TrEMBL record:
CDD domains: Deltex_C. Residues 147-159 have a biased composition (Pro residues). It comes from Regulus satrapa. Residues 137-146, 187-214 have a biased composition (Low complexity). It is found in: Cytoplasm. GO terms for molecular function: ligase activity; ubiquitin protein ligase activity; zinc ion binding. It catalyses: S-ubiquitinyl-[E2 ubiquitin-conjugating enzyme]-L-cysteine + [acceptor protein]-L-lysine = [E2 ubiquitin-conjugating enzyme]-L-cysteine + N(6)-ubiquitinyl-[acceptor protein]-L-lysine. GO terms for cellular component: cytoplasm. It is an enzyme of class 2 (transferase). Pathway: Protein modification; protein ubiquitination. The lineage of its organism: Eukaryota, Metazoa, Chordata, Craniata, Vertebrata. Residues 335-394 form the RING-type domain. Pfam families: DTC, WWE, zf-RING_UBOX. This is E3 ubiquitin-protein ligase.
Amino acid sequence: TIRPVRRSYYDPSSAPGKGVVWEWENDSGTWTPYDMDVGITIQRAYEKQHPWVDLSAIGFCYIIDFATMGQINRQTQRKRRVRRRLDMVYPLVSGTLPKSQSWPASPGAAAAPPVPACTCPQCLLVMSVKATAGPSTATLQPRRATPAPPATPKPPLPTTGPKAPDGVAVVRGSLKLLAVQGSRRQAASTPALSSAGASSSPPGIGSSKGSRPSLGTLNRSHLQRLAIAQSRVLIASGVPTVPVKNLTGSSPVNPALAGITGILMSAAGLPVCLTRPPKLVLHPPPVSKSEIQSIPGISHSCRKTTKKQAKKGKTPEEVLKKYLQKVRHPPDEDCTICMERLSAPSGYKGPQVAVKPDLVGKLVKCSHVFHLHCLVAMYNNGNKDGSLQCPTCKTIYGVKTGTQPPGKMEYHIIPHALPGHADCKTIRIIYNIPPGVQGPEHPNPGKSFTARGFPRHCYLPDSEKGRKVLKLLLVAWDRRLIFAIGTSSTTGESDTVIWNEIHHKTEFGSNLTGHGYPDINYLDNVLAELAAQGITEESLAQEKD
């Protein structure tokens, strides 16, 4: 049975071009990928930071909500989870290419009356390649005892090049390089690679006897040597590599797809080198207790937090009095909290506070001006920890604390290096927060919360800057700023423990998810995130005091 096949090209900036796949959770709990066009539509909306996208415009009655990572059926209101994967790598091609192609034509076309040559994009592309490169479709034939063919000019080859990994599979539309390199080294029993005219019929249709021998007659070791030799040439010359999962494994599915990929790309004369994809490495090799070391300059190796201790004795008015100056003549501008003019009374309509609505104050550090009535209301709606954060510029007054639930933080040195930090060992941080019941400072007091994925392992280089980051993370932990209770952006689950705007590296030996190494800017970025929470080197001195 012969069936037509087709291939599609996508822009490198699209979802398949970046290796992004969107999937939905089916009734059996497994994940099913969306059709390519649907995935591209979802990814485009995601990159534009839209809160949701309606798929009815492309024929589906679904809404994708990025805040909860869920798919909602507009008719039944049924909700399913969705997820975004970043580990699907697609083959890359170069040049100006059409969007879609199909090949071959119907098998019965040869018996039909003569018709004009096919003008589909693929046929035009293939014919143009053949016209410029000459006969280039390689066939395998037994070596004959005939005089050596005329010398073929050698392509420039590098003297040294990257070694192809074991098991690399190589496919190319024209195997002239392989013929030049390999035919001079192989014994007389090795098949020669010679160019033959391209045949429009698939293998097995209209082909003469002996033109395509069975692969079973080929010497395995010779073929492996030829494949590796050509792969070195292709990789060194800049041929795109296509990572393929399970290249030598027992499952036939992925290797079969790899072969089809190579066949389709070689049909247009495009070279391709199939390799194994990089693997996700979340954890370091096993470490014994004797290899674990304490961190110099940091006492202990574990830190615990308990439930929040309520601060007593200070009213909101007393707290704000430390950070404000009264303004007798308000400027002619809006209060950025209630959006009313500062010269008019506050527009806040919530619970009454013991401050006149027409009083105006200026924050002493940043000099931003607000209604006192609005600032007291904002403080009452926050954590009430004695600190205040300017709603305009985020300047922090006092010591900011969070609502992180009780848990434990462990930290030590392990004798392994992170990618990009080969000159030092690694600091491993282990966070462990159990599930529990929300307190009065949490979104839903009295309701239970979950804690997924704990213990969570995070990694820092054991360098001077890495130790500085660890010390500041310890301050953030003590101030309950590393975690919070809310809605997970990855699973959509509510009332669960989530990260609180201080990014951590949870991937030890790779960076496939974006949460690993190498990342030359990570330490600087996390220092900036800590500073945004009011945690700087000055905080270390405050903690000692």
